[in-house]
Amino acid sequence: MRSLSSWGLVLCLSLLVSGCSLLEVKLESGIEPLPQEQLSMRVFTREYASSFFAGVEQSADLILLRSDDLQSKSNALMWKINAEQTLGQTIFQVSPVAAMIDTWAFTAQMAQFFDSGNGKALFGEQTQLAANTSQQLLADYERRMQGLMSKADFTANQQFIREYAMAHPLFDVSFPRVSAFNDWLSFRKIGEFDAVTTFGSVPEVMSDMSDRMAMLASQTPKLLGWKAELFALHSNINSKEVQQTLKDISETSAKFQKLMNESPQLMSELAVDLRRELTPLLVQLDASAERNLAQLSVERLALEKMVERERIALEQMVDRERQAVTKEADALVQRTVTQVFEELTGVIKSLILYIVLFLLVVFFAPLGLGVWLGKRIGLKQASMTKS
């Protein structure tokens, strides 16, 4: 009887030990980090932005320095403003693949615009400088992409980009365009729902947000300065004419001073006549100065309003980005909590089942076994008594 009870206890303990493996809880966060290939795409694309900005700014500044034409200078400023704003839109996309493809497409479109498109005469004789810079930037980007993909993928993507740039040219220096990512998905036969499978882990999302804020902080002052310079370029203020007028007045005054020293009587009479003849001119000049000061005040107010609008737009954009990151983080936390509770519910159900089995084996199995053995022993004793 004792040996059978011991064997039953050993059997129960064996079942419990084998069931302990079911109590291992693996808490999955439900957050998929970005693949290493996409992380490399994001890093290389954003490193390229520095080269792009430097190339465009240096070339545009040379065009400004070498050009005397007002329209060419205006176009050079617009090139810097629109090129850097457009690149900022292409590189900061949710998907690193979309950012890579769209940045590549825009760089190729800009090269085609200055080489054979509507911008081939935008800066007059200096247009070739912009064309050469754009081709160098495109070559630099393709050199970076060769290290991120196989030779076959690079060749296929390069062919797609060239065809896309020819089929969707840029029409003017404001660079209006649409994203090339959807066309690339169709080219690669990838579904829209399969294109973006994850936004990355929480540290990756926060790092992306940090990069965006750093780019805004570095680019916004430059863009505002260029826009103010463009505004001043098209206003009625002409600093060269003012400086030339002041120089002429100074030279004339020096000549009068010399003549007065040589002929005092003549100069006294000349001064009287000159005062009489110049009085209407001085009155007119005073009125003109008042008008110019009024115009300058109006233009200053307009510039202040433009800066205020840019600041408000920047604050709104930062607020939208912050709200988007907050929503994404909330959704990720909600998925994590839901999955954790589902896992815990399954574990608790399994634990209850094993507790019930344990109670059956420990309490009811020995009782039933003892009853059965008692009956057997009673039968044997009865048969022995009869014999």
TrEMBL record:
Coiled coil spans: 131-158
TM segment ranges: 351-374
This protein's record includes keyword Membrane: yes
Keywords from the named record: Coiled coil, Membrane, Transmembrane, Transmembrane helix
Name the UniProt record assigns to this protein: Chemotaxis protein
Higher taxonomy: Bacteria, Pseudomonadati, Pseudomonadota, Gammaproteobacteria, Alteromonadales
